[in-house]
Design a protein that fits this description.
Distance between the termini: 16 Å
Strand order of the largest sheet: 2-9-8-7-5-6
Strand content: 15-25%
Radius of gyration: 19 Å
Order of helices and strands: EHEHHEEEEHHHHEEEH
CATH topology: Chloramphenicol Acetyltransferase
Helix content: 25-40%
Structural class: alpha+beta
Number of domains: 1
Number of helices: 8
CATH class: Alpha Beta
CATH architecture: 2-Layer Sandwich
CATH superfamily: Chloramphenicol acetyltransferase-like domain
Length: 275
């Protein structure tokens, strides 16, 4: 029986097959890369959109649309590894944290994690609208999304949470997690994105969780010593594809950021991963 969120890839090269047996955990296999984010190019494009009356386009939307388009062209970057097996993900998912609107500036702000599904055929405007809609829906402190409700249920019975989480991990390793939980879980995602620039922070090199299937974590931040200098750090699970493929994918990702206008039109096709 296969997983609800991915299909097993069976035609991988021998070296790719053996890597998950050498690096068993995701934290063992994490690679880190720092990118000089092309702020001027992206900001210039955003200002052009604003002058045309399109105020929905943001820095975050450009980044996520560019990586979604990269996955559409290079599906290898959308793979994940669980229990030493490499899977092609069924769909493109994006998770990110959003703050609630009831923070007074004192204490710890309330936040939640949201998750969106894409096909790869979306335009930049469609990605931006999806992001803005889900943020608006979840920013009210009275709102609860699927993940919030799932966590509330887990912690509704004292002492039990540890056993429940362990059981969920056991089910995940065997591909038995129900589709409803997979859709609610922000840890089962193509990209986990952190917009640290929105809180005026340097980007961190974020770990990618051992629980779930996250293979790419993108953190956008700012160099606080230089005005308007943005920085981007990306953490990836090196087991999902070889280095040459990842380099080609990152070049294409950067091309999309340098020319966001390419994202205004939907791609002609979305590539499928190997069998």
């Amino acid at each position: 029986m296969g997983r609800a969120d991915g299909r097993r890839i069976k035609t991988l090269p021998p070296f790719t097959k053996i890597i998950p047996y050498i690096m068993v955990d995701r934290v063992d296999a994490t690679n880190y890369i720092s990118i000089d984010f092309p702020y001027d190019k992206v900001n210039q494009y955003i200002n052009q959109c604003k002058r045309k009356g399109n105020t929905e386009i943001t820095m975050m939307a450009c980044i996520l649309a560019a990586f979604i388009r990269t996955i559409a062209k290079y599906p290898e970057t959308n793979r994940f590894v669980i229990a030493k097996k490499i899977y092609a993900r069924k769909g493109i998912w994006v998770s990110f944290v959003t703050l609630k609107d009831n923070w007074s500036g004192k204490g710890e702000p309330e936040e939640t994690v949201v998750k969106l599904e894409f096909t790869g055929y979306e335009t930049l405007t469609e990605v931006a609208n999806a992001i803005n809609n889900v943020v608006e829906k979840n920013r009210k402190h009275t709102s609860s999304n699927a993940m919030d409700k799932l966590v509330d249920k887990i912690f509704s019975i004292p002492i039990v949470p540890s056993a429940i989480v362990s059981f969920l991990k056991w089910l995940d390793r065997r591909g038995l997690l129900p589709l409803g939980i997979l859709k609610a879980s922000p840890f089962h995602t193509s990209i986990f994105f952190s917009n640290m620039a929105s809180i005026r922070s340097y980007p961190i090199y974020h770990h990618i969780y051992n629980f779930g299937s996250t293979s790419v974590f993108i953190a956008l931040g700012m160099d606080l010593s230089v005005r308007k200098k943005y920085m981007m750090n990306i953490s990836t699970d090196e087991r999902i594809c070889n280095g040459a493929t990842f380099v080609h994918a990152m070049r294409y990702f950067m091309k999309c950021l340098l020319h966001p206008e390419y994202l205004e039109e939907a791609p002609v096709s979305v590539n499928e991963d190997i069998k």
